[in-house]
């Protein structure tokens, strides 16, 4: 995984509550065995009409947010089934950070395990960001080390994160990488118990 510390980008305002994992990546796209290639299916049924024509009213189809790395959504993001494909699709599309007032627990944990920073801000702060982002492109700077979200005009929001996950993201470690940090101890244990 790539280390995350500072992410600066125009935010993509997804002003929807209870976005479930089937909306993030629909079941018909789960046949791939790789972790890559899912980004083109992110929010597929919102991005495209039934006949395959691009839905110009959906935020991801707005050119102003084309290179965005920060997705801002509303409450209960990632609810529904526990499919890990949801964070794969988000990351493959290009988002490194998802900000919402609340996340489904399994989705929240899957984000960390796949190199995405999920940030919880309170509902009022989210609504403020969504309002700013919907009226015109609005940039944010995320600093994981300082645990801050800073807006264009300098307003700063603070967030909490479990120290374990913070270290994992700052170092670009997944759980296997973390295990390798103890390789010498593991080898010594195996010698003693051979």
From TrEMBL:
Keywords: Amino-acid biosynthesis, Branched-chain amino acid biosynthesis, Leucine biosynthesis, Lyase. It catalyses: (2R,3S)-3-isopropylmalate = (2S)-2-isopropylmalate. Pfam families: Aconitase_C. One of its GO terms (biological process) is L-leucine biosynthetic process. GO terms for cellular component: 3-isopropylmalate dehydratase complex. Its EC number is 4.2.1.33. GO terms for molecular function: 3-isopropylmalate dehydratase activity. Gene3D superfamilies: Aconitase, domain 4. InterPro entries: 3-IsopropMal_deHydase_ssu (IPR004431), Aconitase/3IPM_dehydase_swvl (IPR015928), AconitaseA/IPMdHydase_ssu_swvl (IPR000573), IPMI_Swivel (IPR033940), LeuD (IPR050075). It comes from the Bacteria. Pathway: Amino-acid biosynthesis; L-leucine biosynthesis; L-leucine from 3-methyl-2-oxobutanoate: step 2/4. CDD domains: IPMI_Swivel (cd01577). Residues 2-122 form the Aconitase A/isopropylmalate dehydratase small subunit swivel domain. The keyword Amino-acid biosynthesis applies. Catalyzes the isomerization between 2-isopropylmalate and 3-isopropylmalate, via the formation of 2-isopropylmaleate. Belongs to the LeuD family. LeuD type 1 subfamily. Heterodimer of LeuC and LeuD. This is 3-isopropylmalate dehydratase small subunit. The gene is leuD.
